[in-house]
Amino acid sequence: MKSKSSIGIVPIFQRNLFNLPKSEAGSALKTFRKISQLTWEQSCQDQGLKWEKINSKKGQKGENLYSFIITQKSRAIAAREGDYLRILSFQSDYALAYQ
Known about the structure:
31% strand; globular
């Protein structure tokens, strides 16, 4: 049984991931696995990820935000935290990723 405090406390990224169709979820997991095996510099230069800095907005702490391809239909929004990549959300509509 779920506790009352856990209802509705799901980060946007998780909610997006859980709602992906099975085929896209598999693609997303492959992308995460790929990124986990790359250095920061390698991931930014990877042609398949099409890594882009989002100049139109910043993160909550003023950090740079980045967009990259997560599946054929989706782009992720992420921020760098030291050596870690914090994925904030992803959108199936590429245009929404920049809003």
